[in-house]
Design brief:
Low-confidence stretches: 1-30, 331-354
Largest sheet: 4 strands, antiparallel
Strand order of the largest sheet: 3-2-1-28
CATH topology of the largest domain: Methylamine Dehydrogenase, Chain H
Shape: globular
Number of helices: 1
CATH architecture of the largest domain: 7 Propeller
Number of strands: 36
Structural class: mainly beta
Distance between the termini: 41 Å
Number of domains: 2
CATH class of the largest domain: Mainly Beta
Strand content: over 45%
Length: 440
């Protein structure tokens, strides 16, 4: 998709912010790819790569290969390292931003999901979804310092004072938000939820926790100390990533079925704007001055740059491989690139041989139809979400996962080896939404 024209005023503002990032972030070396200055990093889930973009020019500088299933992505406060979890490969890759090459790997256990970094930049926290653990990793030595037991951790938020770690737990029968005491390593509080939490984050002062959940079109505000609900604010369809702007004045959330970025006044809880972005927005990365925000649009292979003050889109830039997590180096502020349109599918999938399983809500309960199919090895199966809510197609063994499928979206996987492959829908597993593929 071609980049939209950028207004002269907006371009000057963006370039001025990029210059500010150079000053705030210190000297950034020129690299062999011709780029210099702070970067924007985006996890290209469908391509198993990390896109690297110049914040000053918006040019895509390169795509760094990483193991399959690029899921979580974070950058150290000093901008020196990027950490990328690969949920299909049980590893975290470490990228040295001086060279934009993978400089190390950390074995994690099964299905690493979300990542977070402590305020002091000394610790990387990693959700190991398949092993019911959170890892505490030394950000410099890359050693695993300790582990915490949390049921199916998906993503997490460390408190600014370094005393607590909040974790979204997605285990059927144990869904909710866990609060870990980092001094003792013990579980201080567990708030059970009837529906599965998707994203959580803390205010800059650590006093307020915000959360989204599957099947609830709202952002929930909690007093972080006791995880006590303060307010639920209605937003667009299927809200996902939610966070505070760095100045603490706004809460931003992406809505995956209405395709917008909603802004909420953090003091009054009033919705101040809903800005149209690309298809199936996934993640948000605000600029350090809280003026701009990048939104990764997984369904349209784009990144949208939003002016939060003017409440409009400054530009949209094509990127590759179903972009999900996105992070800015230092105080950076422009964005990505490279198109790769079409439905997300495994490499080598043979559509001519595909069978189709339709995912729909005919309820109660929601279910896969048919729930069990028998196919020959080498067949591609396509799941189509014909319902009205968000679903997933998730392998029990953690080898493949569709991620969130909005209504009308599809996912394909090719089964090359004989065997039995049970799978489930993450938000509706407790309601019996499971299936089985038998490969002969």
């Amino acid at each position: 998709m071609a980049e939209r024209p950028v207004r002269t005023r907006a371009l000057k503002a963006v370039l001025a912010l990029a210059l500010g990032a150079l000053i705030a972030g210190g000297a950034h070396e020129s690299r062999a790819d011709g780029g210099s200055g702070p970067r924007v990093y985006v996890a290209e889930f469908g391509a198993s790569s990390v896109g690297v973009i110049s914040a000053a020019t918006g040019a895509v500088l390169r795509h760094i290969p990483v193991p399959a299933g690029a899921h979580g992505l974070v950058i150290l406060p000093d901008g020196s390292r990027v950490f990328v979890s690969s949920d299909a490969s049980s590893v975290i890759s470490v990228i040295d931003t001086r060279t934009d090459e993978v400089s190390g790997r950390i074995p994690t256990g099964r299905q690493p999901h979300g990542l977070a970094i402590s305020a002091d930049g000394q610790h990387v926290y990693a959700c190991v979804f398949g092993d019911d653990q959170v890892l505490d990793i030394d950000a410099r030595s890359l050693a695993v310092l300790r582990t915490f037991d949390v049921p199916a951790p998906h993503n997490l938020a460390p408190s600014p004072d370094g005393k607590s770690l909040f974790v979204a737990a997605q285990k059927p029968g144990r869904t909710g938000i866990a609060k870990i005491n980092l001094a003792t390593g013990s579980l201080d509080t567990f708030l059970a939820m009837s529906t599965i939490p998707r994203s959580i984050n803390l205010s800059p002062d650590g006093a307020t926790l915000v959360a989204t959940q599957f099947d609830r079109n709202e952002v929930q505000f909690y007093a972080a100390g006791a995880i006590k609900l303060l307010r639920a604010v209605p937003v667009g369809g299927a809200p996902h990533h939610v966070l505070f702007t760095p100045d603490g004045k706004r809460v931003l959330v992406v809505d995956q079925t209405t395709n917008d970025l909603t802004m909420i006044d953090a003091r009054t809880y009033a919705v101040s704007a809903a800005i149209a972005v690309g298809k199936k927005p996934h993640w948000i990365a605000p600029s350090a001055d809280s003026r701009y925000a990048y939104v990764s649009d997984e369904g349209s292979n784009e990144v949208t740059l939003v002016d939060l003050e003017d409440r409009d889109v400054e530009r949209t830039i094509a990127v590759g491989g179903a972009p999900r997590k996105i992070a800015l180096q230092a105080a950076a502020t422009p964005s990505p690139a490279e198109a790769d349109h079409g439905p997300m599918q495994d490499a080598g999938a043979r559509q001519a041989d595909a069978k189709t399983v339709t995912v729909n809500i005919q309820g109660p309960p929601p279910r896969f139809v048919p729930e069990t199919i028998t196919i020959d090895a080498g067949t591609t199966v396509q799941w189509i979400n014909g319902g009205h809510g968000v679903h997933t197609v998730t392998d029990n063994a953690g080898e493949w996962d569709s991620g969130s499928l909005a209504p009308g979206e599809n996912y394909t996987h090719t089964f090359d080896r004989p065997g039995t492959y049970p799978y489930y829908c993450v938000p509706h597993r407790s309601m019996g939404m499971t299936g089985t593929i038998i490969v002969r």
